[in-house]
Each structure stands twice: as C-alpha cells, then as structure tokens.
Write a structure and sequence with these properties.
The strands form 2 sheets. Strands 2, 4, 5, 6, 9, 10 and 11 form a 7-stranded mixed beta sheet that branches. This protein has a 4-stranded antiparallel beta sheet with strand order 1-3-8-7, with no helix packed on it. Helix content is 3%, strand content 51%. The N and C termini lie far apart (40 Å). A hairpin with a 7-residue loop joins strand 4 and strand 5 (47-53). By secondary structure, the chain is mostly beta strands. The protein has 1 helix and 11 strands.
Length: 121
C-alpha cells in the first residue's frame, strides 16, 4: 500500500506563485510515475496537470506549460509542483497521484487527499 501526503496549497493573488509537495510512503517500489491532477469546483473530471517518472520524463497540460514545473526527489520519494504566474482559472483542488506508469495514473493510481489552490484578488 502507498500513502500520499500533500502540502502547500492556499490563497494567492493572480500572477503569484505556490509550490505543492507530495510525499509518498509505504510500498513505493511499485511507483514509477508521480504527478498532479486538479478538479475545479463543480467540475466532474480531474485533469492531469503534470507528471514525472523516476527517470525524469515529464508530461504537462498545455494550459500550464511555461508556468508550472514538476520535479522529483527520488531519495525523499517526494514530488513538487512549482506554480508560477498563477491565473484565476488555476483555482481547483489539486490531487497528488502515484502509479507504476504515467498512462496508468488516472485508472489505477493512488490518490492523495487533495489540497485547495485558490487564485483570487
């Protein structure tokens, strides 16, 4: 079993920055891919924001390219999401996810509890 603990959400003004962290523990040998999804209030689907493999390969949603950076500390089993130039449309609950492969994340990945990010003036 894998457990994920997230931190770093909050309220920020448009144009500001936040950094999310997600630490994995437990049966981490099965984890290759880690990343972040988000779900807007009232939305019924979680969208992939960014993901990274243990080898450093990354995927980003088009809407965050150039603004968000995902990184990973394999020694600490922790993934980070640096979010810059935040926009009101980035407001959502952000969920950490871990899975054997990026393609499996949405379907069989382990989910964190979620952390709220609100971008508002």
């Amino acid at each position: 079993q894998v457990q994920l603990v997230e931190s770093g959400g909050g309220l920020v003004q448009p144009g500001g920055s936040l950094r999310l962290s997600c630490a994995a523990s437990g049966s981490i040998f099965m984890i290759n891919a880690m990343g972040w999804y988000r779900q807007a209030q009232g939305g019924n689907k979680r969208e992939l924001v960014a993901a990274i493999t243990s080898g450093g390969s990354t995927n980003y949603a088009d809407s965050v390219k150039g603004r968000f950076t995902i990184s990973r500390d394999n020694a600490k089993n922790t993934v980070y999401l640096q979010m810059n130039s935040l926009k009101p449309e980035d407001t959502a609950v952000y969920f950490c996810n871990a899975a054997p492969d990026i393609a499996m994340m949405e379907f069989i990945g382990i989910w964190g509890q979620g952390t709220q990010v609100t971008v508002s003036s």
